[in-house]
Amino acid sequence: MTTIVSSAQDLWTSWTLTTQICVGVAVVLFSIVVMKSSRKIKYKLPPGLPQLPVIGNMLDMRGGEMHEKWWQIAQEKKWPIMSFKFSSKLMLIVSTPEVTKEMLITKGNVFNSRDKDTFLNLALRKSPDGKSETGALFTPHGPAWKVTRKIMVAGQNEFKKNVGDQYIVDTILPQLYSEIAGETSIDARIRVAKMTVIRILLVFVFGPGAEQYADQIVPLNDDLFHVVDTNNAIEFFLPLVGRQMSWLYYKIYQRGLVARKYKLYDSILSQRGIKYNQAKQWSLSDMVQLAEKNGEINHYQALQIFEECFFGGQDTAGGAIEGILKMLVENQEVLVKIQKEMDDVVGVGKQFRHTDADRLPYFQAAIKEGLRLHRAIPVLTPHVAHEDTTLGGYDIPKDTIITVNLWGLARDPASFPDPFEVKPERFLGKDTNFSGNDCKYVVFGVGQRICPGQTLALFMVNVLVGSLAQRYHFELGNDWKHKRDAGTFFKELALHLKLTKRHGFQ
Ligand code: HEM
């Protein structure tokens, strides 16, 4: 009996102990759930389409370019800002000028940072030894970002003043003309958008004569864009293996491509030598080396400034130039009007110079229309807020990734009536500038992160489009077909053109 009672007591004691443990665990779990859900309801996030487990909104992207789908959804639902989930990754997309202005100007001090975690951001902002921040493009807000931007921006005005126009007209353009002289149909992407743009960037970065390295830079850049494209896809579509793959790519990128590019930049520098204060031989590398000597930046930062000029400048400016040439060949009346204006103002057979653009209002309007329709970057490089904030009446948690649909803003009928039609006249007599303070016409971004390459980019677009339009009559090349192609920047098949020299040009 005693045994039975004591076993019963044991049983009771052990049962209560088990119950106590279970109840304890349940209370802890319940508190976690309550804490989590209270954390969730704390934020009133922007609206979005229903999300499926694991894949989020990925099915909503079927059947079109991502920025086109986003624009369609924003228009249908009338959402100035919306949530979108790539698998587990939340992204907010802004689609009106008003909210863009709030984000980039009114709250520009808050939304001025970048996501730290993506492959691209890791690979492009860290020194190969992983110890310091290097560039501007993907670098979060901080001293490294500030100093890099400052040097890049200052460099461009110096370039235009000291080397730009003269050397491009005397050396770079004749090189292009002689290369295409014997060709019946030219590949505008290779000849103009890549090779000529990189030659100009090389002259900007390392000075006159450096254009000879274009053959080496272009394939390295192409490899880099390929790595970036693949990795973006992996990160968005396979989030579970994304981080490991990113790490792998990071190693390949850092050990392979970056090492080769940095080695090339060092070798160009050593061949060129340092020529301070020699206006004719001016190059960005002089400013960069001076900053390094003064201790403002380290050597990795110096190399990364060069890298970002080629990475940030090649396919953006090249894509815009190729797009505008395509607009001209498909809208011959615009091309003819540009040519007439140039003949009248610059003179038949007299080389157009970028300073002439001030006297060519129709040409300027056509360039603006071209950049409206053919920007190479359809959405703003993603920003993050570095503290909890609000936007458009919604809560934005710290570090949430947020972008602006620039492609959509450029096709907003409220800002641009008949947005899909090519009408340079819409810009005539209007003071539409590229800083876009009303955030309706945004090509280079707005506010603190605005593209530091804007001056150089507009210089290249004006000089290359203006010189080709003045000199040649364009037709579509025989082997060019409208067809989609993969790629971060160039989504269409490379443009092929048949160029016939106009009367009066050698
Ligand atoms: C037509 C040509 C170009 C277009 C349309 C363009 C557009 C843009 C845009 C939209 C941004 C993002 C702004 C933001 O995040 O708020 C940007 C950033 C940037 N661009 Fe450009 N860009 C062009 C050419 C260039 C060139 C030629 C260079 C270098 C020489 C360059 C270097 C950069 C850099 C370093 C950033 C990052 C700035 C930062 O995060 O602070 N870009 N660009």
Automatic annotation (TrEMBL):
PROSITE patterns named in the record: CYTOCHROME_P450
Keyword Oxidoreductase among UniProt keywords: yes
UniProt keyword list: Heme, Iron, Membrane, Metal-binding, Monooxygenase, Oxidoreductase, Transmembrane, Transmembrane helix
Xref: InterPro entries: Cyt_P450 (IPR001128), Cyt_P450_CS (IPR017972), Cyt_P450_E_grp-I (IPR002401), Cyt_P450_sf (IPR036396)
Family matches, as Pfam families: p450
Residue stretches spanning the membrane: 12-35
Name of the protein described by the UniProt record: Cytochrome P450
Organism: Marchantia polymorpha subsp. ruderalis
